Amino acid sequence: MAKKNIKIPLLRKASKSFLWASMLLMVLSTIALFFYVRWLLEQEVEEELFSAEARIESALMAGQHPSSLAPIIEIKEVNELKTPFTKDTVIYDPSQDEMELFRELSTYKRINNKSYKISVRVLVVETNQILWAIILSYIVIIFLVFVFQFYLNKSSNKKIWNPFFHNLEQMKKFSLLSKEPIQLLDSEILEFSELNKEIALLTGKVRDDYENLKQYTEDVSHELQTPLAIIQAKIENIINDQTVTEVQFNQLASIQKDIQRLTQLNKRLALLTKLENLQFTHRENIDITDLVAQIIANFNEISTISLTFGKTNDIIATMDPYLAEILCNNIISNAIKHSAHKKPINIEAKDMVLSVSNFGLKPITNPQHLFTRFYRETKEIKSTGLGLAIVKKICDLYGYNISYTYINEHHCFSIDFGTTKPARE
Amino acid sequence: MYIFFLMKLLIAEDEISLQQSIVTYLEKDGNVCEWASNYEEAIYKVSLYDYDVIILDVNLVTGSGLEVLKQLKKEKKKAGVIIISANNSLSDKLEGLDLGADDYITKPFHLAELNSRIKAVLRRGKFGGDENIVFNEIRVDTGAKSAYIQDKPMTLTRKEYDLLLFFITNKNRVLSKEIIAEHLWGDNSDLADNFDFIYVHINNLRKKLTSEGAKYIKTAYGSGYKFTEE
Q1: Residues A338, A409: one domain?
Q2: Other CB atoms closer than 10 Å to residue B122's CB: what's the count?
Q3: Is A102 in the same domain as A220?
Q4: Same-domain status, B187 and B101
Q5: CA atoms within 13 A on the CB side of A241
Q6: Which domain holds residue B156?
Q7: Is residue A373 classed as helix, strand or coil in its secondary structure?
Q8: Nearest to residue A115, comparing CAs of A125, A106, A123?
Q9: Cα–Cα distance, B18 to B27 (Å, whole number)
Q10: End residue of a domain, out of B111, B127, B143
Q11: Closest by alpha carbon to B21, among B108, B149, B83, B90?
Q12: Is A87 left (phi over 0), alpha (psi -120 to 50) or beta?
C-alpha cells in the first residue's frame, strides 16, 4: 500500500504522539484504578461486616444480648443452623424514604445452646460514592498534569529545536552566489552541533567546487586566447606567402571560420562566468526601443531576412548598457539564425514587453531546455549554443521575465522589462 | 599629404610565435619592426628608441605591459600604443585607454585588423586623424570619411567606405571573406552562414571602382580578395 506523502512538522508530530499516548494511558489507568478501588472498597466492606459480626458473636457469648438495629444489625433466634452467606440486598430505608442497596452478611451461630442468625448490613451507597469521588479526582489530576506536561513539552521542544529550525531556514536561503559563509546557530545539543559542523563542511565544499569550476572556466577561456591568436596569425601569413593552392586556401579559410567560432565560444563563456560572478554593477537608463532600432539597422546590412519593428511605446530599462546591447543582439540574432525559409522576423515593443518572433515549422520539442547551455534543437545551424543561455542569465540578473511561446507557426520570445528586482548589494 | 611612409614599430609580446607572425606580416610593407620578448626588454627599448607605434601585450611574462605604457607616458614619448590582451574585460580596456593607449585589441585578432588599427592610430597621431590616403588615382579622406577617384567624389555607403579603407591599408595582401566580415561586422559576422552579404558589398564597391577604370579588387584563390595593382 502506497504511503501518502504528507509531511508533518516535527513539533506537531511529537505533540500528536504525546497526545495519543497520554489519552491511552489516561483511559487505561482510570479503568484499572476503578476496578482496584472497587475491589478495595468491597474488601473493606466485607471486613467491616465480619468484624461487626464477630463483635456481636462475642457479646452474645458473654451473655449480653445486643438489641437489633434494623437494618444494620439483626439478631434472631432460629431452629436450625444454615451455611453463612453474603449478598446484596435492597431494603426500604424509612429515614431516607427510599429503597437502598445494602451489603449483607448472614451467619448462623450456636451460642450458649441457642441458635442465632446474625445479619449485619452496610449501606453500599457510601462506598459507591467514595469510588466515584476517587476516580473523578484522579481524572481531574491526571488531566491537569497532562495539560501542564503538554505545554511544558511544547515550549521546551520549541526551545531545543530552535537552532535546528533556524539553521534549516539558513540552508534554504543558501546561495552559491553570495560570498558569505552560511551562518549557523550553535546548540548545546551534541547531534545538532555535529549536524552544523557537517552542514558548514558541505556548503563550504560545494562553494569551493563552484568557485573552482568558475575559475577553471575563466582560466581556460583566457588561456585559449593566446594559442588561438598564434594559429590565426600564422594562417594569415601562410595565405600571403602566395605558395598555397586554391584548395589549401579554402581549407585555411575554413580553419579561420572555426577559430572564429572558438573565439565566440570563449567570449561567451567568459561573459557567462562574469554574469555569474555579478561583475556588472553599473546601471543606467537605457532606451531599449532605440537600441533595438540600431541593432536592426546593423542586421539589415548583414542579413537578407527582413526585420519589422513595431513599437507602441518606448521601453526604458535600468541596466548595464553593455548587457542591454548583448541581450537585444542575442535575442534578435537567435531569431535570424532560426527563421525557417528566411521568412520575416517581427519585433514588437508594447508596454514593457519586447517580443521577437520568427517563423518556424514546428514548436520546440524541449522548451524547458531552451535556455540551457549548449542545448541545440538541431545540429544544422552552427552556433555556440550559448546565446539564449546568456539572454536568460541577463534577464535573471535584473529579474526580467522571459517566456517562450509557439503561436501560428511562430516562435515567440518575450522579455518583460517591467518585472524587476532591486540591485544586489 | 602622402600616404604610406615607412613606420618604425615595436612589438612587445612574450609569445614568440605570435610576435614573429606579427613582425612577418607588418614587414611586408617595408616597415621596420623591432621586438621585445619580456618586460625588461620592452622598458629598455622604449626608453632608448623612438617608435611610431608600439604594440604592447598586457601580460608580458616578467611584468605588465601597462607599466611599460606608464613609463612611456612619463618619458613623454609620442609613440602610438595598441594594447593586446587575452582578457576581453571592459575594465582592462578602460584602464589601458585611461593610461593613454590609443587602441585596444583582444586576442585572437586578424593581422589585417591589427594592421588597419595601426594605420588608424598613426593617422590620428601624426595628422590628427585628418589624412589623405592615396593609392594611384584613389584618394581617401579619413577626416571627412569620403573617397575620391581622379578627384571626383565617390558615392559610397558607410560599409563600402570601410571596406575600401580596409582594402587599401591591407593592399597586396590576401583577405579571406572571414577577415573582411569580421572587420565590418565584428561578432555578428557569424550570423550569415554564407557570405552572400559580403559579395553584395564587395561587388558594389568593385563596380563603382571599375566604372572609373580602377580594377584593383582582385579575386584570390577563388574565394578571397586582394587589393593590388598587378
Answers
A1: yes
A2: 19
A3: no
A4: no
A5: 14
A6: 132-227
A7: coil
A8: A106
A9: 14
A10: B127
A11: B108
A12: beta
- Cβ-Cβ contacts under 8 Å for A124 (sequence gap 6 or more): A45, A88, A100, A101, A102, A103
Contacts of A322 in chain B (CB under 8 A): 90
Which of residues B87 and A27 earns the better pLDDT score?
A27
Helix (H, G, I), strand (E, B) or coil at A52: helix
Same domain, B51 and B151: no
- Kindly list the residues from chain A whose CB atom is less than 8 angstroms away from the CB atom of residue B111: 232-233, 236-237
The answer, yes or no, to whether ipTM is higher than 0.90 is: no
| Chain A / chain B CB contacts < 8 angstroms | 122
**CA neighbor of B198 nearest in space, from B221, B223, B173:** B223
Rounded distance between C-alpha atoms, residue B138 and residue B165, angstroms: 11
Its pTM stands at: 0.68
The residue of A232, A271, A306, A325 whose CB has the most chain B CBs within 10 angstroms, and thus the best one to mutate to test that interface, is A232
Is some CB atom of chain A closer than 8 A to the CB atom of B195?
Answer: no
Most B CBs within 10 A among A226, A238, A386, hence the mutation to make, goes to A226
Is the domain of A291 the same as that of A342? Answer: yes
Tell me the CATH number at A360. Answer: 3.30.565.10
Q: How confident is the model at residue B131 (pLDDT cuts 50, 70, 90)?
A: confident
The CA distance from A356 to A410, in Å, is 10
Identify the domain boundary among A230, A253, A276: A276
Q: Say yes or no: B194 contacts chain A, CB-CB below 8 A.
A: no
Cα gap A128→A37, rounded to integer Å: 10
Distance CA(A354)–CA(A314), nearest Å, equals: 10
Q: Which amino acid is at A287?
A: D
pLDDT, residue B1, reads 36
Q: What is the largest CA-CA distance in chain B?
A: 55
Please name which of B153, B113, B118 lies closest in space to residue B31, comparing C-alpha atoms. Answer: B118
Does the N-terminal peptide bond of residue B118 adopt cis geometry, omega within 30 degrees of 0? no
Distance CA A302, CA A286 (A): 25
Under an 8 A CB cutoff, do A302 and B191 touch? yes
Helix (H) or strand (E) holding A118: strand A114-123
Record: contact B179-A382, CB cut-off 8 A: no
Rounded to a whole number, what is the distance in Å from the CA of B104 to chain A's nearest CA?
15
What b/e string do you get for B10-19 counting C-beta neighbours within 10 Å, with b at 16 or more?
Answer: bbbbbbeebb
Show which of A225, A246, A276 is a domain's final residue.
A276
CB contact under 8 A, A232 and B223: no
For residue A170, is it within any domain? no
The tens digit of pLDDT for each residue in A237-250 reads 888 877 788 888 88
Q: Which residues of B touch A257 (CB under 8 A)?
A: 178
Angle at which helices A190-240 and A124-173 pack, to 10 degrees?
A: 20
Query: Does the beta-carbon distance from A250 to B222 stay under 8 Å?
Result: yes
Please check whether residue A55 lies inside any domain of the structure: yes
Residue A3, pLDDT above cutoff 90: no
Nearest CA in chain B to A252: B176
Residue among B72, B17, B2 nearest B42 (CA): B72
Q: What is the pLDDT of residues B55-84, one digit of tens each?
A: 999 888 888 888 999 988 888 888 899 999
- Last residue within a domain, chosen from B82, B111, B127: B127
Q: Are residues A230 and A297 in the same domain?
A: no
